Amino acid sequence: MSVGLGKVPGMIFWSLLDVERAIRDSWGADTCAPEDVPDWHPGNPARGQCGTTALVLHDFFGGELMCGPVHRDGEHVDYHWWNRFGDGLEVDLTREQFAPDELVGEGAQVPRPTGKTRTDAEYELLRRRVRERLGG
């Protein structure tokens, strides 16, 4: 599977780079996971964006959702989300959010969440901003 082009209804195609730029330009404290808002700042805009970002990227390109544990000083503190495409290419647009003492463990494929989740509002806002930036 190629990850070169994403589509939404109406058959408009974008490159991964186009979608990445739109996602990064759309991040804000209001698209951040609620528990990460105290640590979010413009100098680290990827902080707390992994779940919503992985879902938006999945909307455009499909593939698999990946999730792995985050450890700080040997203690499990959170989970990190990213994407893997059919050819095995892993894309993690938020890896830079972590401090040197935060380590992401091995990831596993996880199903896309169904039903209500704690970050639905942030996901919907990020998805809307990205589509607006892409003109779709």
Topology:
Layout: E1 5-8, E2 12-15, H1 16-26, H2 50-61, E3 64-72, E4 75-84, E5 90-91, E6 102-104, E7 108-110, H3 120-133
Antiparallel strand pairs: 1-2, 3-4, 3-6, 3-7, 4-5
Helix pairs in contact: 1-2, 1-3, 2-3
Polypeptide structure, described:
The protein is of the alpha+beta class. It has one domain. Helix content is 27%, strand content 26%. It contains 3 helices and 7 strands, in the order E-E-H-H-E-E-E-E-E-H. The chain has helices at residues 16-26, 50-61, 120-133; strands at 5-8, 12-15, 64-72, 75-84, 90-91, 102-104, 108-110. The strands form 2 sheets. Strands 3, 4, 5, 6 and 7 form a 5-stranded antiparallel β-sheet that branches. It has a two-stranded antiparallel ribbon with strand order 1-2. Strand 1 (5-8) and strand 2 form a beta hairpin. Helix 2 packs across helix 3. The two termini are 23 Å apart. The model is unreliable at 1-5 (pLDDT under 50).
Salient structural properties:
alpha+beta, 136 residues, YunG-like, 7 strands, 27% helix, 3 helices, globular
Q: What series of H and E elements makes up the topology?
A: EEHHEEEEEH
User: What number of domains?
Assistant: 1
Give the rounded overall mean pLDDT: 91
* Helix coverage percent: 25-40%
Query: What distance separates the N and C termini?
Result: 23 Å
Give the C-alpha Rg. 14 Å
Number of helical stretches of at least 4 residues: 3
Tell me the fraction of residues in β-strands, as a range: 25-35%
The description of the largest β-sheet is:
5 strands, antiparallel
Pfam family, one: YunG
